[in-house]
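Practice problem: predict the structure.
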Amino acid sequence: MGYEVAISKSWAELENLTQKKSHTVRFLDDEYDIDLEKKNILSLSTNVSPKTHISILLLHYLSRKLKGLPQPTGEWISFKQLDGGQFYYSVFRKRVLEPIIKKYGERPEGLISELTKRFKGKEVKEADASIVFEVFDGIPLFIKLWRGDEEFGAEANLLFDKSISEIFCTEDAVITAEVVASMI
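Answer:
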């Protein structure tokens, strides 16, 4: 499904879910105004429309939020545990985990200082550095990072709350994780 089709379907679904013409959605460290009447999305911090893949993500999230978000379970799952995740793990690793390892593998504590400041994350005492933060309201992610040594290279994992499967399809979960990896 192309971006245009996904966008059109998302706008149509939202029109059927709400009479309200404007909604605000927080994604990472920004808020977005979603105007259903004009079919427009703007960042409130920059007054610029997000890229298409982020727009789709915002619309999918808003749709699920209007239907009712499940509560986070506190049970963390890996990408491999998502529907089809084991088949696409190598792509997930390349696009999400490797950029995190490259940036913070030698200095895991930098991950903590960055994410607690920008995304109001909470440090967890696991691995060499671990943090939990919300990407959207009600959607937490858990990043664990291990420093490399003379035997093994640095390693990272990004875990999803089990409720993610009720909120997003696997592709939306991947895009969420990719955006996070590109922004941190």
